[in-house]
Design brief:
- Pfam families: Phage_zn_bind_8.
- InterPro entries: Phage_Znf_bind_put.
- This protein is mostly helical and 180 residues long.
- The chain contains 7 helices and 4 strands; from the N terminus they run ββααααααββα.
- The strands form 2 sheets. A two-stranded antiparallel sheet has the order 1-2. It has a two-stranded antiparallel ribbon with strand order 3-4.
- The longest helix is centred in the middle third of the chain and has 22 residues.
- The N terminus is likely disordered.
Length: 180
């Protein structure tokens, strides 16, 4: 029943759970805990489960009879590191990579939409690759070469996403029967 949450989003043990930890410690120490002890230890052990605290108290009780919250926390962190180091990692599969890529595309699209930016229509780029490029002469189905030329006093570089020259993209919209 450790459902109480602190302002740092850490689970806190209930008063009864902390009292059970202190009762275990009292077994090693030989002195009963007071109300102030329960309050102080509950605050100090925020974010740690009852099971972790019990395991730490049992381990510390084998070594010393003076058990402090700092020693319990240190033993819990050590146990967590040990568990983390021995937990095998699953390698991402091709399906995972496809899901990650799709999530990335959705995120980028959301950023573009929030910023009011526009991107080239992907269907337009696909249609453009079906035509010969007037700039570099790339055949249909082949991406444009990096060549640039002066056109009306400016340089014509490839579109970053479609890798086609703007003239090739424009040819799609001006060619009769082409889909845009």
């Amino acid at each position: 029943m450790s459902a109480v949450t602190t302002r740092f989003d850490q689970q806190m043990m209930s008063r009864a759970e902390v009292a059970s930890v202190l009762a275990m410690i009292a077994h090693f120490r030989g002195q009963a805990p007071g109300e102030a002890d329960v309050r102080a230890w509950r605050s100090a052990l925020a974010g740690y489960s009852l099971g972790e605290c019990h395991a730490a108290v049992l381990a510390a009780g084998k070594v010393t009879d003076r058990i402090t919250p700092a020693e319990i926390i240190q033993r819990i962190k050590s146990a967590r590191r040990y568990t983390e180091a021995r937990t095998p990692r699953r390698r991402p599969t091709d399906n995972d990579r496809a899901l990650f890529a799709a999530a990335g595309r959705r995120g980028i699209a959301a950023v573009y939409a929030a910023a009011g930016w526009t991107r080239a229509d992907p269907s337009r780029a696909t249609d453009a690759l079906g035509h010969t490029c007037p700039v570099c002469g790339a055949l249909p189905g082949v991406t444009c070469r990096r060549t640039t030329r002066l056109r009306n006093g400016g340089r014509e570089t490839r579109d970053l996403h479609s890798r086609a020259h703007p003239s090739r993209l424009d040819a799609v919209t001006t060619t009769p029967g082409a889909t845009a």
